[in-house]
Design brief:
Chain lengths: ~70, ~400, ~350
Amino acid sequence: MCLALPALVTELLPDDMARIELGGVRQQVSLALVSDVVPGDYVIVHVGYALTRLDPDEAAKTLALFEEMGQLA
Amino acid sequence: MKYVDEFRDGGVAKGLARAVAAEADPARAYHLMEFCGGHTHAISRYGLEDLLPANIRMVHGPGCPVCVLPVGRIDAAIWLARRPEVTLCTYGDLMRVPGSKSMSLIKAKAEGCDVRMVHSTLDALKLAQARPDRQVVFFAIGFETTTPPTAVALKQARALGLANFSVFCNHVLTPSAIAHILDSPEVRLLGTVKLDGFIGPAHVSTVIGSAPYEYFAEEYAKPVVIAGFEPLDVMQAILMLVRQVNQGRHQVENEFSRAVTRDGNAKAKALVAEVFELRKAFEWRGLGLVPYSGLRIKQPFAAWDAERRWPVPDDSVADHKACECGAILRGVKKPVDCKLFGTVCTPENPMGSCMVSAEGACAAHWTYGRFRDAGTQSLTLPSPGAGSAPLLPGYPP
Amino acid sequence: MTLPRRAHPRPLDIRHGRVDLSHGGGGRAMAQLVDELFVAAFDNEALNQRNDQAAFDVAGGRMVMTTDGYVIHPLFFPGGDIGSLAVHGTVNDVAMAGAVPLSLSAGFIIEEGFPLADLKRIVDSMAQASKEAGVPVVTGDTKVVERGKGDGVFITTAGIGMVPPGVSISGDRARPGDAILVSGTMGDHGVAVMSRREGLEFETDLLSDSAALHGLVAAMVAVAPGIRVLRDPTRGGLAATLNEIAVQSATGMVIRESAVPVKDAVRGACELLGLDPLYVANEGKLICICAEPDADAVLAAMRAHPLGRDAARIGHCGADDHHFVRMETAMGGMRVVDWLAGEQLPRIC
């Protein structure tokens, strides 16, 4: 519901923080709500916290599903 | 922006729109509620209703924590802000919400109160550490997406022994709100409000998982499709709901599989359980008292609870008599059915919850959709002169 | 004839000095501040005369006059500062009437305790912007207010210019069928400024687009003297400005979302902050509304100019009793682009 965006983790920082990047803009977010996040992962960011890791395989499957749905119609 | 732009592809959207139109049964109507304010916003902002056949009607639900925050709680926040020792930190969404006597936090700031807009609890904590002379109060609102960050902040405050930090807690719960709607007389008994299915919240579900919705799908026999926030996610979810309705199924399906699992975020849920507990009942603006729908801070963190640090007033303040927000939030009425809509009640002067936040049904309709009310008048253009560039494609002549 | 510079017993201590109440008192301290900081930087014939006003001859015709106040915070931001912004903004207000800017005035209201080093930095930046634009600051004023009664420094300006014959540009001249053009990417300035504002912690290399647009305007008017409307979308962004014009001209508008140029970094920052780029301020861009037959030529003229490389056609005007500004979204749906109640506030949900 709340505004949250998928962003790329570029660097891990001390105190359970990380640097993320979205469209060329960088921000520091907290990793207190997630585990085992490494640079290269995409995370969903909300009010300065990473909420969950984004699953690239599921993302690809979902996009493929959209295309397939559209073409069948 | 990766994982964003691909989910906003206009060409794919048209394909999905064709698929929805092909599967929607012209002999019946579909009433689908998007519970979440973010989905209301996405639908309005992208004009998605233009892509749907006329027999699919989107009903806007009460999933906007700003909209449903009762007047009394805004008054309480202003009461806190007026204390000379207090620095009240709030998300931007709350600054203009009107409480009693048209007071708001932005007006309190103009009065001289120390009200600061923050983007994160992290900012509020930093402020408390930098200014030991101030009492920093964080005005916490939001559904299950926003609650874990507040839990982390309270744990950090305790770990740091930060005596000048506290939280004014107004966190609310999604399943309770959904149950309240489904149990309302119009839906359950009278059938005057038809609800054929739900689009489930995106980011709330990353935290709580898809499992909690299984109860609703079962008990009320309504399909739930959890959808991401991007327009393609919403279109796909509508397609999946139409399919379920056509096939007489009522299951929980997860369109937002790239971020939502059945169990959700165990770490975040554990943190929330450690810090918060259920209130017996919490008032929702427009809906009245909803049992077990709100959270309060647990005893071990009592020292950081603003409601225990100060005698914060807890009055129940009614909305304007003619305000139809309650009915609109339950899908019983539409914004244009309310006498106050567009006359007294506008985004500049909101009277009730539906106009208060950009996602509220009335605000969304005013901002994005009201030209439809203006009649079927389309924008007429003179015919182009010789040698001029073509008009927007598909534009009515 | 310019008078010789007055010598002061000791030069201003730029490195460590601060503005104090004596600098606003009208006495020797103020004269020194004006001489060593303002006059030295702006350095033009009128100002060097050290009168309380500037006198000059003007050709007959239609004059344009504008005034502006600059209260921006932070004072220094990526791509500019309050000084350069003051020059660009005032020159642009004159240029939006199609007028050739002639000269500027600048009044400074400085807070007691403001560092002289910062003041010099602002004044020098302002002087450079003025020289690059070819529009001199010919007269000024200095006041000092007590500590706590001002936000560092406020600058108020006035600007004058002359409208070339045959040019009549005004917000009420848009007509159904006219083309709507923008000179480049939207939202750069607002995002650059926000990236420095306290509490909004994000990093980007984005610079403010603050620039003087009179050269661009001259190039456009040269190919199409019948241009109807020019306006720079400052506070409130593209959306507010289009709505203003729609009401003034009593016309409706339709724009296409995919045609509005926005930099990736601005999109990203707006997503992170919960803002809409259509409502974010610009300080070096303009909106142009012209008759449809002129649109291609105007667009070409813009793109040939360094400040208009990303110019784009974004929509059309049309008859509409309600004067709505509507937008065809990237999804193909339609929505209203309304103007906001107040300043856009970042949202979390």
